[in-house]
Amino acid sequence: MSSQDWLYRFFTSRHRWLSTLAALTLTLLLALVAGFLLAEAGPLLATVGLIGLMIGLWMLRDIEAAYMVVIGVICLLPFASFPFDIGFTPTFLDAALGALFLVWLLQMLTANRRQFVATSLGGPVMAFLLLAIAAFVLGLGHAPLTPYIARRFAEILLSVLLFFLVINTVRNTERLERLIRFLILFAFVEAVIGIALYAIPDELAMR
Questions:
Q1: Is pTM, for the whole model, over 0.70?
Q2: What is the pLDDT along the chain (207 residues), one digit of tens a residue?
């Protein structure tokens, strides 16, 4: 069962109270987010935030959508960050990768066959991951832990774990070809933007 099937069954459950609870929870969440963004950030950022929330829900329905968003952020907005602070300033890439791993986790929890696929390279990758964690823990005795350092280390861990996510979710040629098309498309858009920024005056490009 995919995460899309899981969400569909949750919102269309034969138990009326469960589907009603799901709809009310989603409505309350949207209202709280919209109210907070309107009060703290203004209507423009509130609109952007709600669009981001819709994209997040779309990502939860289909892991290929999550992959597409991650690829798009890497190509077009690799350094963009959210306009708020939670001890550190989260980036769009942090959110996209987190959503991608969440979708994978939901699929693992709801699938009939919870099989974790590994390859011959899985051992060395896991050894590197454990070595990185050990080095990080030992290094805490020589330098203070700051939110920035913690975020950067978490990004390193997610980047390494992405190896296992890909080999467990990209299991056929058709999905691989679709993801490659996404990559080519966003790379083309990135190239067009780069050429346009090169062609226009520097004063306009800096805006």
A1: no
A2: 444 455 555 554 555 555 566 566 766 766 676 666 666 656 666 566 666 666 666 666 778 888 988 998 898 888 877 766 777 777 888 888 888 888 888 777 766 556 777 788 888 999 999 999 999 998 888 878 888 888 888 888 988 999 999 998 888 899 899 999 999 999 999 999 888 888 887 776 666
Using the structure block, give the residue that is written with the tokens 């990185």. Answer: 132
